[in-house]
Write a structure and sequence with these properties.
mainly alpha, 84% helix, 11 helices
């Protein structure tokens, strides 16, 4: 069946320089459902077998199941990415790819802690990232948060699952990727375009991330949220800063800077002690 589907899909990919229409999914989706169902059945049957009773055939079935998962991910990604040139369906294809791969990442991470299961989980989230990059090359979708937020939620959810399972784990390797995917694309758009809804939402989300980091004593959310909120604030205040700098004579700014240096120097030791205390508190976070 996979060979038949491939034989039907290849002519669709070549039929026009712009790519295929919805007939691609009409052939691709039924085959994917059958492959994923077979892979799930093989892996589930192998996992239910007691470890002391695993036969070579059972291990081969388990490996075959994981191999089918990987084949389904790669095949879907390749077919849909090559079809993004068909503009009427480009946005919906990217969105469906990202949502599907994000859900697969979280499901594999949640239900299968084995090494092959983790390979499927990270491979699916990687495929989602490739889909986002391919969509960006074609300008789909126009609002990047439609695809960046699902990836971020999947990464943060799997990171949270790991932190709950391994209490001594640090937050940086498990939460930082999801936080960066959640905040950085919006921050870049905020600096360049500055749509009102994005300005408000980004500020609120960055503040919420800081609060959660403090409440949960997690270092990565606190630091990343603080840095993003600082950059976001400077980007929004920069026009007023530029106007104020141009309206006030330079010697007044020089005098204000000198006064500030004198005040800081007068309490230098106290400021150093404060900075050390802040650094110790932040480093004590998980």
């Amino acid at each position: 069946m996979a060979l038949t589907t491939g034989a039907r899909i290849l002519p669709l990919l070549r039929q026009t320089p712009l790519g295929p229409d919805a007939r691609l999914e009409a052939w691709l989706l039924p085959t994917l459902l059958i492959v994923v169902a077979a892979a799930t059945a093989l892996v589930t049957a192998a996992r239910r077998t007691p470890h002391d009773e695993i036969a070579p055939s059972t291990d081969a079935a388990r490996r075959t199941g994981y191999g089918l998962f990987v084949l389904a991910i790669l095949g879907t990604l390749a077919a849909e990415v090559f079809a993004l040139g068909y503009v009427p369906l480009a946005t919906i294809r990217v969105i469906l790819l990202v949502f599907t791969f994000s859900a697969l990442h979280l499901a594999a991470f949640w239900f299968d802690a084995s090494r092959p299961g983790r390979l499927v989980a990270w491979g699916s989230i990687g495929a989602g990232a490739v889909a986002v990059a391919a969509g960006a090359a074609w300008g789909a979708p126009d609002t990047i948060e439609i695809v960046s937020v699902p990836l971020a939620i999947a990464l943060l959810a799997s990171g949270r699952l790991h932190l709950d399972a391994v209490p001594h784990s640090r937050s940086w390797p498990w939460l930082a990727p999801g936080l960066l995917v959640l905040l950085v694309p919006s921050l870049l758009q905020d600096v360049t375009e500055g749509a009102l809804w994005r300005i408000v939402v980004l500020g609120l989300v960055a503040t919420l991330v800081i609060v959660v980091g403090l409440m949960r004593k997690l270092q990565a959310p606190f630091v990343i949220g603080a840095v993003v909120l600082l950059i976001h604030g400077v980007a929004q205040l920069w026009p007023w800063i530029s106007r104020a700098y141009g309206a006030v004579p330079w010697w007044l700014w020089l005098g204000a800077g000198g006064i500030l240096l004198i005040v800081l120097a007068a309490r230098y030791e106290q400021r150093i002690a404060n900075f050390k205390a802040i650094a110790l508190n932040v480093s004590a976070l998980r």
